[in-house]
């Protein structure tokens, strides 16, 4: 693993902090984060065990950010 890849690896501590932040901010019961074995720079976001999106770690000009991408299926909009 290169030094750049090591910096992008999301740690368990980061995942815990992000999960606490999302629980507080979104007030969503059943929210959980799950590691992705093939992609160390991101975690899956689950609500009540159902996949809803990804959080990617990004480093830019020495600053770390986390990008949350949520998947919404068109069939879910009709419910």
UniProtKB/TrEMBL annotation:
Source superkingdom: Bacteria
InterPro entries the UniProt entry points to: DUF3126
Organism: Micavibrio aeruginosavorus (strain ARL-13)
Name this protein carries in UniProt: DUF3126 domain-containing protein
């Amino acid at each position: 693993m290169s030094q750049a890849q090591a910096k992008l690896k999301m740690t368990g501590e980061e995942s815990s902090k992000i999960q606490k932040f999302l629980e507080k901010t979104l007030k969503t019961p059943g929210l959980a984060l799950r590691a992705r074995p093939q992609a160390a720079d991101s975690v899956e976001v689950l609500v009540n065990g159902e996949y809803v999106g990804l959080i990617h770690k990004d480093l830019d000009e020495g600053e770390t950010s986390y990008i949350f991408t949520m998947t919404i299926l068109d069939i879910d909009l009709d419910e």
